[in-house]
Specification:
single chain; alpha/beta; 5 strands
Length: 145
């Protein structure tokens, strides 16, 4: 049922919590973890001209580090994995990747933000993915641990 499990990551601590669930599912089903990080083009395009390229490269480096952390944990757990870094609007890039790679399950974390906090964070990527996919999705509420 689950051969390919997508774990979008921004490198945050909350991703670790979602990854724990994804690794458990993947290990029991001999599935592949797909680690995806998206460089949010809206952020670097909004920067001043002299800062755009530097910000974009920094964000790419952070995204690469994020997928490498997922890959390391998958390898430690004996789970097959693949990594990808995309440039774009996060929820759209996640949906495109899931379709292109015939992902069976998407596992994402959520902060459970609302109101101003949600607006300040450009809305909820997880919420947009949930609203725009027909694929099964496991949403893990991030907790302080």
């Amino acid at each position: 049922m689950y051969d390919d499990v997508l774990v979008p990551t921004d490198g945050s601590d909350g991703t670790v919590q979602a990854l724990e669930h994804a690794l458990d599912i993947a290990s029991t089903r001999d599935a592949t973890i797909h680690a995806l990080s998206v460089v949010d083009r809206r952020l670097y395009l909004a920067a001043g001209e002299e800062q755009k390229e530097t910000l974009k490269e920094t964000m790419k480096g952070d995204a690469q580090s994020a997928v490498e952390r997922v890959a390391d944990q998958a390898a430690e757990g004996g789970v097959d994995y693949t990594t990808a870094v995309r440039d774009g609007v996060p929820y759209r890039a996640i949906l495109e990747y899931a379709d292109e790679n015939d992902v069976d399950l998407i596992v994402m974390g959520t902060h459970g933000r609302s109101g101003r906090d949600k607006l300040a964070n450009l809305g909820s990527v997880t919420e947009r993915v949930v609203e725009n996919t027909q694929k099964p999705i496991l949403v893990v509420r991030m907790t302080d641990s």
